[in-house]
Amino acid sequence: SCTQPRAELERPSTADQASCSEDHPRTDLPFNTSDWTEAFAEAMGGATNDSRPMTAACPAAVRCEGVANQSVVELSGVRGQVVRFVLLGTWGDLHYMGLTALEIYRADGTAVDLQQCQVDASPHKDLNQLHGAGRDHRTLDKLYDGVTTTCDDLHMWLVPFARKKEHLLDITLVEPIMLSGCKIWNYNKSSDDTFRGVAAVDILIDGRKMFDSPISVRKAPGHSLFDFGQHISFSRAPENISEPLPHPEQPSIDQHYLTPRYPRVHLLKMELTSTWGDMHYIGLNG
What we know:
Layout: H1 6-9, H2 36-43, E1 78-87, E2 96-106, E3 118-122, E4 157-160, E5 167-186, E6 200-205, E7 208-209, E8 215-216, E9 230-233
Antiparallel strand pairs: 1-5, 1-6, 2-4, 2-5, 3-5, 5-9, 6-7, 6-8
C-alpha cells in the first residue's frame, strides 16, 4: 500500500510554555506583559515618547500606559427626568391616533426600562376611557411591551383624536439621568390604519423644548418586513423634512414650464419587475 505514517498526516500542534524548544518555539507573547507598550512600539518602529496615545488594542490582562489615564468620552445628551411628547396630528385619520412602540435611551445608548417608570397620557390614556367602550386591548402599556416591528394591534396603543385638543404622552423616570434620544415606531396595523399614526411631535425634557420646530414622524409602511422605527437624537436637531430642499441656482433660460424640485420622502420603494433572462431568481449587488 501507499499509506504514509500517521505522524505526517496529523496537524502540527502549537507549543505552550511547558513544551517550548528551539525546534518547536513558543507561540505566546515573547515578552512580559508589563512591557507590552514599549515592546509594541519598538516592533512597529515607533518611539515610546510619542505624545499621541496608543491606538492598538490591549490584551485584557495588560494595562496600556497612556490609555488607562485617558478620560472616557460619554455620548452627548440631556439630563432630565420627565420626558413629554406633544403629539401633533395624524397622517390623515380624523378620529384616532396611535403608536406601536416607544423607547428612550440613556447617554451610553442603552434603553430605559419604561416598566419601572410612570407613563401617562392625556386627555385619554386609551379607548377604554370613552363612555360605553368595552375592554379594548390597545392600552398605554403596549408601547413598552418589547414588541416593536409588528402588524399585530395587540401590541399597539390607540386613543381618540381631536384636532382642537392637546394630546400629551408623559414619561416620568425613576430619577434624573442623561438621555441621548428616543426611537418611535408609528401605528402599523395595516396599510389603511397607518393613517392613524402620529404625523409630528414636540419633545420636552423637564419642561425644556428640545427642538425649535416639530419633528416629523415617519408614516409606518403597513407591514413588518423591516424595522421601521425612527431614531430621534436629543443632542442635535434633525432636519425638518417638511421644508423643501433649496433649489440649485441655474442660469436664466427662457422656458415655458417649471423645473420640479428634488423630492423629499421618508420611504423609497423599488419594485423589481424583471430579470435579464433568469426565470427563477432576481438579485442585486448593491
